[in-house]
Design a protein that fits this description.
Layout (H helix, E strand, L loop, with lengths): L1 H12 L11 H71 L2 H19 L15 H11 L21
Helix pairs in contact: 2-3
């Protein structure tokens, strides 16, 4: 008997959070609409973030392919240039122009060294940020409070980083 009395006292102490009486059906409808919109926006945001991550991964793969293509194009250009310089070197040696042949050999060596060195990796670009003025305006809008100190838009807490 005592156990059931303790259980009922404990249940009475906890407020019922399943339903809130807004006093009028219009207020309830408005709350339901706004709350539903916020839940939908949160779901949309999660889908957008997922899509954004997918696009970022696809872009990274495309950048890798583009880098490989650029390297192969550069390598073929170097090969063509080296072949032309070797032909000129051979002609210079046949003509007895040894200084010109040595100069051409140096150019060939320089081209090969430059083509084999990898350029420094580009620094990743930071993610685009909202304009400071826009961010401040948004934060001010979200942080507005009533005269009693409560949030004017309590549903924005759903999107706070702690959720």
């Amino acid at each position: 008997m005592e156990e059931t009395q303790v259980e009922t006292e404990t249940q009475e102490e906890q407020p019922n959070t399943d339903h809130v009486d807004f006093g009028s059906p219009e207020a309830q409808e408005k709350f339901d609409r706004v709350y539903g919109d916020m839940k939908r926006y949160k779901g949309d945001l999660q889908r957008y973030e997922s899509n954004l991550n997918t696009v970022a991964q696809q872009n990274a793969a495309l950048l890798d392919k583009l880098d490989k293509l650029e390297r192969s194009t550069a390598d073929s250009e170097v090969s063509t240039t080296v072949a032309g310089l070797r032909k000129q070197e051979t002609e210079a040696l046949e003509a007895g122009e040894f200084e010109k042949a040595v100069s051409l050999r140096d150019q060939i060596t320089d081209l090969k060294v430059k083509s084999n060195t990898t350029p420094p990796a580009p620094k990743p670009e930071p993610a685009p940020q909202a304009d400071d003025g826009d961010q401040r305006a948004l934060n001010a809008f979200l942080d507005e409070r009533n005269q009693d100190g409560t949030l004017k838009r309590p549903w924005v807490e759903l999107f706070s980083p702690g959720c």
